[in-house]
Amino acid sequence: MSRQILYCLLFFSFLGCNSTPQSKKQELTETLQEIEWENFATETIDEEIVLLTENTTLYYEQDTLTLYNYFNMPDTILKKDIEAVRIGGVSSEIPFTINNKRNLKMLFVKNNETDFLMFNENKGVYFYESEYNYISNDYVDISAIKDLKQLSFIDLSYCGVETIPQNFKTLKQLKTVFLIGNYDLYDISNLPNIKHLVLNNCNLDRLPMGLEDKTNLTSLFLEGNNFSNLTELKTLVNLKQLSLADCNLSKVPYAIQDLKQLEFLNLSYNPSLNDFGSLNYYPHLTTLLINNCNLVEIPFTVSFLTTLKHIDISNNKELIDFSYLSALKNIETLNMSNIEIETLPKVLSQLPNLKHLDLTGCNSMLYYSEISQMKSLTTLNLSHCDINVIPIEFKNNKQLKALYLADNIYLRDFSTLIYFKNLTILDVSECDLKNIPLEFTKLPFLITLILNNNDSLNDFSNLKSIKKLKHFSLNNSSLTKLPVDILKLIHLESLSLIYSENLISINGIEKLKNLKELNLEGCDIYELPNEFEKLKKLQTLHLNYNQNLTDITVLFNMPSLIYLDLTSCSDIPQSQIDELKRINPNIEIIR
User: What pLDDT sits at residue 147?
Assistant: First the structure.
């Protein structure tokens, strides 16, 4: 199964560099501590039992749980003291026997084929979407659930739920409930202790009965509904996260004035929103999303939000007045992508703590003079801006550490780069490069270089002079073999060549002795050379979608390997995979 897309509501996409799936996994487990899914067609549970349905490993709050499909589960597994269950293919009711799982903590009632939900106690709600979406909204009887005293998380999305059964009152530990896509939902009174509730796409025109009593709620997501009345929100005084995205709002609800604990507020995708009068001072608010709202000016009341650190005003194409941003002295992250302006607003120079600025798609921009005054700026995204030269005004931004210039196909003049002595990340993907510009070699601290989708790039002679390069991405290249100059990058730790479909040989790769991560997804590799085993530090290897690969025995001599993706490598014998697991029991193999 190919890699899914992780969408984090609290972070803007331009802040992440071109991380590989293994580094994303490390980020999830170590930094965000959120759930991660890895899907298998078959999985050996122990030596005697093979579970023929989907088996998913969950990383939840640093505890590793195994998620089993309740139907099709062997009796020997049913007898185990499991903590997480997925009930898939539900047609009419949840079996009463589920109550025998007295220590169950997480229950997923999957009346659909969409793995779309992530949750983290500290960070909030996330969405993790698979490539295919089949959704059923058939009614499922959930009344059998009553004796699961340890249950803290339940997903009842797309189950035709209208009202929460009275039995749920006994679930004292139940804190997180997903009810996405329950179009006839009207009563949630029997959820006494919940803290996190997701009611996206429930066809609501008013809040369901019982919500006003949920004073312990800290996260409430109401996206994709069509509200006419949100008065009951005012009682939810402990809310920290509130999302009203895509709710057809014309004005900010008056009720949110009383929500003084808010830290995150999402009002995006409300194109008729023109009255922000109810915004007030919130002492803890750090993130505001008002993108895709057809704004022509920053609302005056935004100036009250002086604790803001992150604001997204992107995709308001006709936005011309930014003056009220000047009050936001604590702003660190500003997303201004896809706004049709010719001059960078002067107010940006009055934001002393601005560190991350996204101007992606601002392709009408002609003047950047204000950027030289942004002394704290460390990340700048100018992707898809139709520039042909890096503006000379940038030369004073010596503190810049990450610069994204992707999809500027006429960019040829990189002379300004020589001023960025602290630059560590440079993305020049889709810029129609023919060679590695000499200016890249003048960046003494450059660690990450991203050159994806430069089909004509064939001269790598300057690459060897980038002495400290550790992470190199050359996805969708036209390479047939590894260039000699890449093999001279002795400090390289990660190399990504995803869908370099002409690449049939990786001979010489053993020279990259510090390589820890190698991504060859979708190449046309026929074999791994014998010298491959000399990569003694390699931990992560992606060989998925190399359909001509038939032999992985060289990996038997690589004990450092802990993650191997063999998805759609159907010609590799199962016996080789079994032997690799025997020799290296710590390895995780995806197939």
Answer: 85
Q: Is the pLDDT of residue 49 over 80?
A: no
Fold match, 1-229 / 382-473? yes
Q: Dihedral sign, CA of 467, 473, 475, 481? A: positive
Position 419: which residue type?
Answer: Y
Domain 382-473, CATH among 3.30.470.20, 3.80.10.10, 3.40.50.300, 3.40.630.10:
3.80.10.10
Domains of the chain, residue spans: 1-229, 382-473, 482-503+516-591
CA–CA separation, 434 and 428 (whole Å): 12
Q: List the CATH code of the domain at 482-503+516-591.
A: 3.80.10.10
Of 61-65, 144-148, 346-350, where does mean pLDDT reach its minimum?
61-65
Mean pLDDT of the chain: 81
Any idea which residue has 């270089």 for tokens? 449
Residue pair 488/510 in contact by the 8 Å Cβ criterion:
no
Strand 118-120: give its sheet, edge to edge.
5-8, 124-129, 118-120
Angstrom CA distances, 243 to 145, 255, 288, 315, 538, stand at: 29, 14, 10, 18, 42
Contact 67, 73 (CB under 8 A): no
- Of 269, 265, 317, the C-alpha closest to 293 is 269
pTM: 0.81
Q: Mean pLDDT lowest for which of 15-29, 209-223, 441-455? A: 15-29
pLDDT score recorded for residue 111: 54
Superfamily of the domain at 1-229: Ribonuclease Inhibitor (3.80.10.10)
pLDDT at residue 92 greater than cutoff 90: no
Distance between CA atoms of residues 267 and 301, nearest Å = 14
With a CB cutoff of 8 Å and minimum separation 6, the contacts of 71 are: 53, 87, 88, 89
Report the alpha-carbon distance of residue 89 to residue 247 in Å, rounded: 30
- Tokens for 2? 């190919």
**Short-list 218, 258, 285, 283, CA closest to 267:** 285
